[in-house]
Amino acid sequence: MAARRVFVDTSGATCPTKGGAQLFEALRASVARRGLQGVSVVARGCFGLCRLAPNLYVEPDGVWYSRVTIDDVEEIVEEHLIHGRTIPRLIRYQPPSTSTKETS
After folding, report:
1. Domain 4-93: CATH superfamily, name plus number
2. Which residues contact 56 (CB under 8 A, 6 or more apart)?
C-alpha cells in the first residue's frame, strides 16, 4: 500500500457546522483501528469548497471527496485507503491519469 495523507477540512465558516471535526476524528479512529501503516489523517484549514462541505483530499492520489458523512468513513477506508478503489459518488475531482477501479 502506498503512503497516503488524507486532509480533512475542519475549519472555516461551513465545515465545522457540517461535521468536519467529527469526520476527521472518525477517519483517524478507523485508520488506527485497522492499524494502517503509511496512512495519516490531517486536519487542515478551509479548502474553499464550502457549498460542498465537508471535504477531504487524498494525497498523492489527487482525489477530492465532497459531501462526505460519517457513514462514508468505513467505505473510504476500506475501498480507497486499503484497496485503492475510489468512491465515484463522493468524488468532486480526480485527475484523469488516476486509475479508478469500479466498486461492485
Report:
1. Glutaredoxin (3.40.30.10)
2. 6, 7, 8, 9, 23, 27, 64, 65, 68, 76
